[in-house]
Amino acid sequence: MHEMAICLGIIQIAEEKVHERSSSRVRSICLEMGALSHAAPEAIRFCFAAAARRTIAEGAALNIVELPGVAWCMSCSKSVEITRRGECCPCCGSYHLQVTAGEQMRVKELEID
User: Fold this and answer.
1) Binding residue positions
2) Residue 98 Cα to chain centre, angstroms
3) What is the CATH number for 31?
């Protein structure tokens, strides 16, 4: 389950910021997550709750902002939204798509005490 490793990384980022600012705990974390990031938002939420136990992030709210997958269709020259890799262009039906957005995952905001 790679979602647990992702959550441990999120907590590590939060711990570094808390120590930089001489704070005591994390109140909330805003995570941007692309539709093509290969992680399930519900699994991230579940793993985060377990990974945050007995850390500075225990009890912190995890807000996930889901971003769409976007691809450039080489056949019809349009930027199109996709929900997963391997699907066809919703405009022309071509499978010649190049992913341009939606693979990212980043901690966008931290609220700390």
Assistant:
1) 2, 73, 76, 89, 92
2) 20
3) 3.30.2320.80
- Smallest CA-to-CA distance from 6 within 42, 57, 47, 64 is with 47
Domain span including residue 55: 2-112
Chunked into runs of 10 residues, the chain (113 residues) has average pLDDT values of 91 94 92 95 96 95 97 97 94 97 96 91
Alpha-helical runs (H) found in 1-109: 2-20, 41-51
Number of domains, the chain: 1
Known binding-site residue numbers for Zn(2+): 73, 76, 89, 92
| Binding-site annotation, residues for Ni(2+) | 2
Task: From residue 18, give the alpha-carbon distance in Å to each of 21, 24, 26, 68.
Answer: 5, 7, 7, 30
